[in-house]
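This protein record is not my work; I was only asked to verify it. Take the sequence as given and treat only the tokens as open to question. I have pasted the whole thing underneath without changing anything:
***
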Amino acid sequence: MINIALPKGRLGEKAYKIFKSLGYGCPEIEEDNRKLIFTNEENGVCYFWAKPSDVAVYVERGAADIGIVGKDILLEQGSDVYELLDLGMGKCRMAVAGIKGCRPSSDSTIRVATKFPNIARSYYASQSRDIEIIKLNGSIEIAPLLNLSDVIVDIVETGTTLRENNLEPFEDIVDISARLIANKASYKFKYEKINDICEKIRNIKE
């Protein structure tokens, strides 16, 4: 039995459709119910829904053998898992952005508002820049507008929200997309089945 953690929402639903197309379907998961765990012994799979930011935790700690998670979460959490495949779904990018035409000077400490303090800290450390992290959980686009921060570090998909708030991306940090990850012990002891799933996904993506 392979335990698979799926993120709640559109990404998880898309990922399940891929698994189903490969022969790992579970009819119960498509029924209108409030269950979170779904098993199909015939296909040897057990799925469960998890908050996207929790998927890597379930996989790292062995509650799930494999899972689907965004690259942003892997980077932010520093998850100790194997990253097996880039699924090419949920594509976007992590970027530095700020008020149009107002790039901060290079000789001062930069105030950075973000939901991703570890990614921001790592990025600026690579540039040997001094920063002050301001951790926010909501819409961080307003932080520069209210002079709470000089810039933000956030996920940018189309850039529409930035433009509508008189902001612009200054620098791209990393491309983001959904990844297939595996628990390290599971990958060793269930290698044959996990590798089979990987190969089948590769084949349909080519």
Remarks:
- The first strand starts at residue 2 and ends at 7.
- The chain has eight helices and eleven strands.
- The CA atoms of residues 100 and 168 lie 5 Å apart.
